[in-house]
Amino acid sequence: MIYASIQYKNREQLCCIDVVGERVFLLADFFKEEPVDKTATVSMISFINIYKDEWTDNIAYFFGSQPELAIPLSEVNLSAPIPTPARNIVCLGKNYEAHAQELKGHIFSDKPPLHPIYFTKPDHTVIGTEELILPHKAITKKLDYEVELALIIGKEGIDIPKEEAEDYIFGYTIANDISARDLQQDHTQWYKGKSLITHCPMGPWIVHKSILPLPLSLEIKSYVNGELRQHGNISDLIFDIPTIISDLSRGYPLRPGDIILTGTPAGVGMGFDPPKFLKSGDEIVCQIQGIGTLINQVG
Ligand code: MG
User: How far from chain centre, in Å, is Cα 108?
Assistant: First the structure.
């Protein structure tokens, strides 16, 4: 099942999407017949919080038997799947070997990481597909893109063993970890350079984990103005998904709706000679096989 946050009839609503049929079904219709607290079904985070495993099949059956409830996908606007995360988005740096090599001497040392490198992005960075990335020209001249697989956590957990990691995932989406390279370097610590408003496009929706069982082997790509820039595979992660969840959750509680960006493959703008930084009007297309396409333009 694929879940999305949409703007429809002038308000934020939750839906599931039939990508092939380009149809949308409002989850409010499903919840009319489910004995749940209706106030818990208004946001993606509250939906994930109360999600029951049996809904994976029940929702498909409910809408499969009532095709008259469908809305054409073209009639809704997709928001970011979680438009306002409850906590900072946790991100990994240097998690693909080829990317670590291309930024050697710029952002990274030449030593392979012994442990995952974490940093975070705040809630105000999040925008959805088709929304504008602000260039912040007054403070950065080195704007860069990074396509990444984003994990959406499904239930609370701490000290999670690798073997149980998949139980704690709700699903997957695509993120573009927009980075102001000059701010990253000037401030040494990456937080400011990764945290400008609109600098975490995410979407277009969440693919539930039941569709993409671990281990994942999915192509991941980015294009700028139609030119292929990044092309990797999720199977090339240095720290794989169970390792990330297990390592991060040691002494650190994960909560439903938490978002983890798993790192970016080689081909970012800073890795080219000369560098290919983003400019106003550029269109960045991020794609992950089996998930979808996230499209944003620099304003
Ligand atoms: Mg990144």
Answer: 23
C-beta atoms surrounding 71 within 10 Å:
15
This prediction's pTM: 0.96
Distance 93 CA to ligand 1 centre (A): 6
Q: Which residues contact 24 (CB under 8 A, 6 or more apart)?
A: 4, 6, 8, 15, 16, 17, 18, 70, 71, 72, 73, 75, 76
The residues spanned by each domain of the chain are 2-78, 89-298
pLDDT in tens, 9-44: 999 999 999 999 899 999 999 998 887 877 777 899
Sheet containing strand 227-233, edge to edge, reads 132-133, 292-298, 283-288, 219-224, 227-233
Please give the mean pLDDT across all residues of the chain: 94
- Check whether domain 89-298 has CATH 3.90.850.10, yes or no: yes
Write out the residues surrounding ion ligand 1, Cβ under 5 A.
146, 177, 264
CA of 53 to the centre of ligand 1 (A): 31
Residues 170/159, Cβ–Cβ less than 8 Å: no
